[in-house]
Design goal:
The structure holds two protein chains of two kinds. In chain A, helix 1 packs antiparallel against helix 2, helix 6 crosses helix 8 and helix 7 packs across helix 8. By secondary structure, chain A is an all-alpha fold. Chain A is built from eight helices and no strands. Chain B is mainly alpha-helical. Chain B is rod-shaped and about 180 Å long. The termini of chain B are far apart. Classes of the chains: A mainly alpha, B mainly alpha. Chains A and B meet through helix 1, helix 2, helix 3, helix 5 and helix 8 of A and helix 1 of B.
């Protein structure tokens, strides 16, 4: 009788200590997850923004979609199993958001939607400041403009594949993972996209 | 068709590929430079407003409900006015009927009174032979 009373008393005393420990552990786990996510944002935000900027050629829209991408990623962070790299996961979210955006925009045909996308000429103004002659810079600018024109004529999927491969320098396997296509399809899209770029560069398009 | 090594076609293809490679490299550098320049700029971002079919349907349903309420209200008002008008007309008809009945009753009463009066006035003369007969009997 006395022994059981002691055990019960010990249980009553231990219970709050255990729950306090559990809550402290949960808090620590949350803190670690937040830090981890923060570091993911720091690392990958420029790349996601760059891809969305190249896809939309609209700085404000790219910024908005980037924010939405990380907001969505944050909401689903606990579901990220690490089966693919964080970059692949984030890029997949970005591509889906972009698709949703264009789909919604098509439905908004009756509404005046603001379009801040810059044209190919304006987009090609950006060149890294290297040691190039004026002539070389002009040629480079012309080439960039031609590539932008070719990109304008690509289908949404061809464009995504092309940008992931030639702007983000992704391997075919990574592109396939991000887009959810198989490697053969990625190669086919890429080949068609390159044919269009080549034709634009030759001036035969 | 296979291009022979060292042939003009092969040289042309190589030159074209070199141009393509250079163009792709320039394109990549350009996008990177643009992105880096824009990424550092402070910017106010406005939320993207998506209009989904659900919202559109909600608005349409709301409009239909509002229009229905207004139409229903107007119909109800008109219906009540009509009912009130009919009730007033019925009341007026009832009053009129009552007045007519009262007037007819009064006319009947007047007529009966007049008949009574006429009869009562005529009775003495009508009773004259009987009175005379009674006088004759008394004399005998």
């Amino acid at each position: 009788m006395r022994a059981s009373t002691q055990v019960m008393a010990a249980g009553i005393i231990l219970e709050p200590i255990e729950s306090a420990t559990a809550s402290a552990t949960a808090g620590r786990v949350r803190e670690v997850a937040a830090q981890e996510f923060s570091s993911i944002v720091q690392t990958h935000r420029p790349q996601i923004f760059r891809f969305l900027l190249a896809s939309t050629r609209d700085v404000d829209l790219a910024e908005t979609l980037t924010q939405e991408c990380f907001l969505k990623a944050h909401r689903n962070w606990d579901r990220f199993r690490g089966e693919s790299s964080a970059m692949t996961w984030l890029m997949r979210i970005a591509i889906n958001l972009q698709k949703d955006h264009w789909r919604n925009r098509r439905l908004q045909f009756w509404r005046h939607t603001q379009n801040n996308a810059v044209d190919a000429g304006e987009a090609s103004e950006w060149l890294p400041s290297g040691e190039r002659s004026v002539e070389q810079q002009m040629m480079a600018r012309e080439q960039v403009q031609q590539v932008w024109k070719a990109v304008e004529g690509l289908s949404a999927r061809q464009k995504t594949v092309f940008l992931l491969r030639y702007v983000e320098d992704m391997e075919l396997k990574e592109v396939a993972q991000v887009t959810g296509l198989n490697e053969g399809t990625v190669k086919a899209h890429l080949s068609r996209a390159l044919a269009k770029v080549r034709a634009e560069l030759r001036g035969t398009r | 068709m296979r291009v022979q090594i060292g042939s003009p076609d092969e040289k042309h293809n190589q030159a074209a590929d070199a141009v393509l490679d250079e163009a792709l490299k320039n394109f990549q550098s350009s996008v990177h430079a643009w992105s880096e320049a824009e990424f550092g700029k402070p910017r106010t971002v406005s939320a993207v407003h998506y209009t989904s079919w659900r919202v559109v349907t909600g608005w349409a349903l709301g409009c239909v409900l509002a229009a229905g309420s207004v139409t229903g209200g107007l119909y109800e008002r008109h219906h009540r006015q009509e009912v009130a008008r009919i009730a007033v007309a019925a009341e007026a008809a009832r009053q009129q009927k009552l007045a007519d009945e009262q007037r007819a009753l009064k006319e009947n009463e007047d007529l009966l009174a007049q008949v009574d009066s006429d009869v009562s006035r005529q009775v003495p003369s009508a009773m004259e032979p009987l009175a005379q007969l009674m006088d004759v009997d008394e004399a005998q």
